[in-house]
Amino acid sequence: MTAQPSASLLGFPPEARLLIVNADDFGLHPEVNEAVVRAIEDGVAASCSLMTPCPAAAHAMALLRDRPEIPFGVHLTLVCEQPGRPWGPLAPRALIPSLLDAAGGFPSFEDAPGVLARARLDEIEIEFRAQLHAVLDAGLEPSHLDWHCLADGGRADVFELTLELADEHGLAVRAWLEPSRELLRARGLPALDHDFLDSFALDVAGKAEAYARALRELPPGLSEWAVHPGLGGRASQAADPDGWRVRRGDYEFLTSPRARELLREEGITVLGYDEIRRAWTERRRGRSR
């Protein structure tokens, strides 16, 4: 049986050019939070992903509380790539020893393969539930689940676990890699038709032109950009010396008139994960009949 095109599942003609623009790392620090909100309210981003263990997560949740129209997901994390501003688990450490480094926090991004090799699935579930419930207990309603620095969770069983959590709470799940996308298609769910774009993979020099070219060349079907806007002020530079230029470049393009003009000229429809969630909800209702 041939899978229905993702565009059709989302209510668009098959030839439509659809682009998810999701701002990752919401909660990292206040200047990132401000940039994410502006990129959605004044720019072309359409949803975001919140890292609940991060130092500015409470600030991010306060911004969301004042803006219930902003779709957001939970950016599930098991690593910390900023040793100068470390973050750790939300679950009790005694319950998740396989996820911790020697200092009792999340390991560095460079140790991600080691994390994946030793992490117990039951402990991952405990931590993921704690991160999800940080927003649910705050009275916020997420649209989806995704992962920080680990594409599709980094392991097939972690992806399946996340799907189960999403089903339990009526959420969508980001899927970037082809095995995961095939799994979603087999379940009649919309999945990306093309390789995703992670803004950290683009050169800082010439980024605006790279984005413009990507829009002009965007093929029909469903695509996704994971962007990382940041204001790039002194606080950002101190907290994120290796990444603030990436984030500033993203912010500048996403909030530029040129971005909107290109989308209009190219006839591209930008989606947030609230629209993906709605399609998943309709599919779940169909299965329950």
Structural class: alpha/beta
Number of domains in the coordinates? 1
Question: What proportion of the residues form beta strands (DSSP E)?
Answer: 5-15%
What's the helix-strand series?
HEHEHEHHEHEHEHEHHHEH
Assign the CATH topology: TIM Barrel
Q: Supply Rg.
A: 18 Å
In helices, the fraction of residues equals 40-55%
Number of H/I helices: 12
Query: How would you sum up the global shape?
Result: globular
**Largest sheet, described in full?**
8 strands, parallel
What does the model show?
- This protein has 289 residues and is α/β, with parallel strands linked by helices.
- The chain has a single domain (6-288), classed as Glycoside hydrolase/deacetylase (TIM Barrel).
- Helices cover 43% and strands 13% of the residues.
- The chain is built from twelve helices and eight strands.
- The protein has helices spanning 6-9, 30-41, 57-65, 112-118, 121-136, 156-169, 178-186, 207-216, 234-239, 244-254, 257-266, 273-288; strands at 17-26, 47-50, 72-76, 144-147, 172-173, 197-198, 221-227, 268-271.
- Strands 1, 2, 3, 4, 5, 6, 7 and 8 form an eight-stranded parallel beta sheet that branches.
- Helix 2 links the parallel strand 1 and strand 2.
- Helix 5 (121-136) runs parallel beside helix 6.
- The protein is globular.
- The protein starts with 5 loop residues before the first helix and ends with a helix.
- One of its GO terms (molecular function) is hydrolase activity.
- Its cofactor is Mg(2+).
